[in-house]
């Protein structure tokens, strides 16, 4: 069984682990001002709590981790030496095919968001966050971002053309992300779905999980401003030491 350890001296009592855990393993002790592990058997090793903890106060024992292959410096060095230009198969790349593919993806996401909401309730953001972190860990890139700004630059490239991201980062703790073209917004308009719903929640947390993992940071949403032509997220950045 997985064992969860909390460093009470390091814990800052932010309660993020309590909110993030999809299986409600933790409860917050109001007297001690720290979280407590009350349902350890429910832990399935998603590591959401340890990833989001700003104080790195949560660790796990008896858990098997998938190898973070492409973020290991030695593996990256070897992969860079072996990398060669490989001809890609002929695939449709015109705008019509891209639009059809995004529409199909949007419909699938809409269905998934509804299912996740019904089964997981308030844990929907955690699903998006974990998915983003997983992509950041497994995506085969041959370099590791050296800064949050570089992580944002990679995210902009990776999320195109489905999303046109315009991040503005002050280099410290303030991040503003404008989303211009967005296939989720277009899908919501076509289906008569209110902006800011389940799909938008999944998207933001997916982006936050992906970028946070790349930039070794935690992203906390301060304000969300959905709009018919542009959406904007005001985010606080906590760089992990």
Describe this protein's structure.
Strand 5 (163-169) and strand 6 (174-182) form a beta hairpin. The protein has two domains: 3-61, Alpha-Beta Plaits, CATH 3.30.70; 95-239, Muramoyl-pentapeptide Carboxypeptidase, domain 2 (2-Layer Sandwich), CATH 3.30.1380.20. The strands form three sheets. Strands 5-6-8-7 form a four-stranded antiparallel β-sheet. The chain has a two-stranded antiparallel sheet with strand order 1-4. Helix 5 (124-138) packs parallel to helix 8 (198-215) and helix 6 (148-159) crosses helix 8. It has helices at residues 16-20, 48-52, 73-82, 95-120, 124-138, 148-159, 183-191, 198-215; strands at residues 3-6, 26-29, 34-37, 58-61, 163-169, 174-182, 217-225, 231-239. It contains eight helices and eight strands, in the order E-H-E-E-H-E-H-H-H-H-E-E-H-H-E-E. With 241 residues, it is α+β, with helices and mostly antiparallel strands. The longest helix has 26 residues, at 95-120.
Number of separate helices:
8
Q: What best-fitting shape do the alpha-carbon axes yield?
A: globular
Strand content: 15-25%
- How many separate domains make up the residues? 2
Q: Which runs of at least 5 residues are low in confidence (pLDDT < 50)?
A: 81-86
Order of helices and strands: EHEEHEHHHHEEHHEE
CATH topology description of the largest domain: Muramoyl-pentapeptide Carboxypeptidase, domain 2
**Gyration radius over CA:** 19 Å
CATH architecture of the largest domain: 2-Layer Sandwich
Distance between the termini: 29 Å
Q: Which CATH C-level class of the largest domain is it?
A: Alpha Beta
Indicate the structural class.
Answer: alpha+beta
Q: Going by CATH, what is the homologous superfamily of the largest domain?
A: Trafficking protein particle complex subunit 3
Reading side by side through the largest sheet, how are the strands ordered?
Answer: 5-6-8-7
């Amino acid at each position: 069984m997985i064992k969860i350890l909390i460093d009470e001296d390091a814990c800052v009592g932010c309660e993020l682990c309590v909110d993030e855990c999809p299986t409600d393993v933790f409860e917050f002790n109001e007297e001690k001002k720290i979280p407590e592990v009350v349902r350890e058997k429910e832990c399935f090793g998603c590591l959401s709590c340890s990833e989001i903890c700003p104080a790195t106060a949560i660790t796990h024992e008896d858990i098997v981790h998938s190898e973070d292959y492409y973020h290991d410096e030695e593996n990256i060095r070897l992969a860079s030496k072996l990398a060669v230009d490989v001809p890609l198969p002929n695939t449709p790349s015109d705008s019509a095919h891209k639009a059809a593919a995004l529409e199909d993806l949007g419909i699938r996401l809409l269905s998934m968001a509804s299912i996740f909401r019904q089964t997981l309730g308030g844990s929907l953001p955690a699903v998006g966050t974990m998915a983003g972190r997983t992509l950041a860990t497994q995506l085969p890139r041959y370099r590791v971002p050296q800064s949050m700004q570089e992580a944002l630059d990679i995210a902009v490239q990776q999320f195109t053309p489905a999303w046109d991201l315009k991040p503005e980062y002050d280099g410290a703790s303030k991040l503003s992300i404008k989303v211009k073209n967005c296939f989720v917004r277009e899908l919501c308009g076509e289906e008569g779905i209110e902006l800011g719903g389940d799909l938008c929640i999944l998207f933001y947390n997916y982006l936050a999980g992906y970028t946070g993992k790349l930039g070794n940071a935690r992203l906390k949403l301060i304000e969300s401003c959905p709009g018919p032509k542009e959406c904007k997220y005001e985010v606080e950045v906590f760089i992990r030491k």
